[in-house]
Amino acid sequence: MIRKIFKRSAYIFFSLAILVTINFMGISSLVFNLDSEEEIRLTDQKSKVQLAAANLKSELEFLLEERLFAADGLKAFVEAHRYKVADVTAEAEMFELFAKSIYESTPDLRSLQLAPSAIVSNVYPLKGNEKSLGHNLLTDSARSNEVLRSINNNQYIVTGPVSLLQGGDALIARLPIYKQSTTSALTAQRKDLDTFWGFATVLIDTESITNIVQKASEENNIDIAIRGKHGLGKEGDIFYGDDSLFLEDYIETSVRLPTGSWQIIAFPKNGWYQIEPLKERVTWLAASLLVVLNILILFLLYEPRKLNGIVSEKTEEIRDLAKFPSENPDPVLRIDHNYKISYINDSGKHLLKSFCKDESCEPPKEFSKKFKAEVAKKNIGSIEWEEGSDIYLISFRKPEGETYTNLYFRNVTQEKRVDQAKTEFVSLASHQLRTPLSIINWYTQALQKSKNAKIDKKGKNYIEEISIGAQRMTELVNALLNVTRYELGTFLIEPEKVNLKSFLQNTKKDFEKQTSSKKISLSLSVSADLSEITTDKTILDLIFDNLISNAIKYSPTGSKIKIRAKKSTARNFTVEIEDYGFGIPENQQNEIFKKMFRADNVVSKDTVGTGLGLYMVKSLVETVGGGVSFISEVDKGTTFTIVLPITMLRKTGSTRFK
Predict the structure, then answer these.
(1) Pairing relation of β-strands 572-579 and 627-633?
(2) Kindly report the CA angle at 514 between 510 and 516, in degrees rounded to 5?
(3) pLDDT of residue 283
(4) Burial of 129 (C-beta count, 10 Å sphere; 0-12/13-18/19+)
(5) What is the dihedral angle through the alpha carbons of 82, 86, 88, 89, rounded to the nearest 10 degrees?
(6) Strand locations in 275-363, DSSP E?
(7) Is the Cβ–Cβ distance between 620 and 539 less than 8 Å?
(8) In the sheet where 261-268 sits, what is the strand order?
(9) Which of 482, 476, 545 shows the shortest CA–CA distance to 514?
(10) Phi and psi (nearest 5°) for 573?
């Protein structure tokens, strides 16, 4: 009896000693990690501000790139007319027509100008810009130095924002033009002044830039300042925001210009998160933990058998881990039922800095949130995760009947970089194709409309073929640009109030020429309970333009197409587009939304097509929280069903689709 009492007393004493030690260590760890948690909050805040600044940088760079390419178009126009633009009245009229086509297709332009011998002689639009005519840039003391530098170095210069002679502010981009020049506009090769023809100039309204910056400031709750007037970067003057921000602990990035840069700084409107002193929180935390400690001691004293069960369970787990693939060349982790790391192999040790913030070895909150969401759906799957400069594809598997999940990491950084480089190359190539295509389209239209041009019937047929080919090329370039903008993430969703019936009626009217040429009947019905919606018109245009143009293209002459719109739930509406065309073969229906895919039966009937339309439709619909499906039968037709939210949510990012 005495021996039993002694054994139990020894056991109790031993248990108390272990519990006190463990809890003391736990209290110490938690207390001293309070500051660490607050530092994480501060780091998270800085990451969000950094992301907002990076998105603003991308949006401004894209805006400038898209607007400044107009100067290359003006240069090509001057060279095509053998540098006679300012000499002959007829050539001046041609300039007005050409400049008008660029001006109307490019937003936010103040004016387009040509300055032979650095004297402004051609301006579009002339109204409101009359004072700039005849202005000699070489005798303007405020601009002569930069103008001479541009001429001597064959250098594309961007100045401003500056106040204009005709009133208002603008960003000015000047591209020097040389007679018989074959070098790139951005080449720094020196030119003789004798070969200098003049400047092609583009003026961009400053307001378009400030609007983007103000929106970024409001949506991300940050103050923004920009310096680098005339592309001088940190050395330039401040032209947006409060100069006092440059005295704060700000986040910075830079916007690249053809020559030079702007510096953007961002700072939270409410200031950075302040880390509270540790001593103010120690007392209440220690008291709370002592209460928990007493409860645990009492529980374990009266339930000693459970301790044996826990030990047995952990012993089994250790045996199981002995079989785990520690020799795997890629990182391997095991997450237990509490979403803490119970094992990590040798190859995964470099992840400890990120995943093991303390002794509990708990994954970052962002990772856990994403991981939990995926595991809740299925026991086997994969997710992507960025760790520093590396990108991992993480395959996970939760064995049946077990509480843990195994994670297998594979570094796909190089693959992602190659894919990113490919996408950026396609975007760059597409941008560069827009200028020559605009010139080809403009000249073919001018020849088709000309009453004085002596062109025989054969020549007119050639011009018609050139026009059709150029239009198809333009459609392909626009499709490629939309795809690359989506894949690069350079877009945002801007919802506005839209009358759906009026929108669809206008869309139907846009296709009247195509339907009449094929004698196709296009009908539209919209249910009475579906009127005003909140949506992004540009995204809606892209979705329905692709679906309706496909229905027309792949339907025989004399057939019919039906568009039906109705309210499906309190939050969603449905649009069906039904045709009686060629249909989609059953064995290829799983491929139809893949990039560059076209079904065999339509390729043989119509060789023209990009295979990008349905890929974009699915991508855009799912991005805004909708869904797309279809039913189809060969030679009987296809019905596409689009489900979209009645109220589309705003999504911040970079530049919107154009």
Answers:
(1) unpaired
(2) 105
(3) 47
(4) buried
(5) 130
(6) 332-335, 341-344
(7) yes
(8) 238-240, 222-227, 261-268, 251-256
(9) 545
(10) -130, 155
Identify the helix (H) or strand (E) that includes residue 374: helix 365-377
pTM of the entire structure? Answer: 0.44
Give the per-residue pLDDT at 639.
96
Where does 380-470 show beta strands of DSSP type E? 380-387, 390-397, 405-411
Q: Are 170 and 205 in contact (CB under 8 A)?
A: yes
Distance CA 209, CA 228 (A): 14
Contacts of 315 (CB under 8 A, 6+ apart): none
Spatial separation of the C-alpha atoms in residues 317 and 294, rounded to whole Å = 29
Please give the backbone phi and psi of residue 496, each rounded to the nearest 5 degrees, phi first.
-150, 165
Amino acid at 147: V
Contact 539/624 with Cβ under 8 angstroms? Answer: yes
Separation of alpha carbons 482 and 657, rounded Å: 6
From residue 613, alpha-carbon distances to 482, 542, 548, 617, 619 in Å are 10, 9, 11, 6, 10
In angstroms, the CA 517 to CA 536 distance is 31
* Residues in the chain where the model's pLDDT stays below 70: 1-39, 86-90, 180-194, 275-329, 350-362, 375-379, 388, 415-435, 451-453, 472, 474-492, 603-610, 650-658
pLDDT, position 59: 83
Measured CA distances, 142 to 136, 157, 160 (Å): 11, 15, 12
pLDDT at residue 313, as a whole number: 53
DSSP H helices, 120-160, are 144-153
Q: How far apart are the C-alpha atoms of 303 and 545, rounded to whole Å?
A: 70
Contacts of 320 (CB under 8 A, 6+ apart): none
Q: What residue has token string 């002689």? A: 121
Q: Which residues contact 640 (CB under 8 A, 6 or more apart)?
A: 547, 576, 577, 628, 629, 630
Give the whole-angstrom CA distance, residue 613 versus residue 113: 37
The reported pLDDT for the residue numbered 226 is 92
Q: Which residue has the tokens 């909140």?
A: 534
> How far is residue 581's CA from residue 562's CA, in Å, rounded to a whole number?
12
What is the SS3 assignment for 629?
Answer: strand
Q: What is the pLDDT of residue 182?
A: 44
Q: What is the per-residue pLDDT for 76? A: 83
* Torsion angles phi and psi, residue 2, rounded to 5: -65, -40
Q: What is the pLDDT of residue 622?
A: 87
| pLDDT of amino acid 607 | 46
Q: How far is CA 523 from the centre of its chain?
A: 35
Whether cis (ω within 30° of 0) applies to the bond prior to 107 is no
d(CA 329, CA 608): 47
Diameter of the chain measured on Cα atoms = 125
Instruction: Centre a 10 Å sphere on the Cβ of residue 621 and count the other Cβ atoms it contains.
Output: 17
In the block, tokens 């409101």 appear at 128
DSSP secondary structure code for residue 656 in this structure? P
Pair of tokens at residue 352: 């400890």
573 is written with which tokens? 């509406």
Which pLDDT value is given to residue 658? 32
What are residue 104's phi and psi, to 5 degrees?
-75, -20
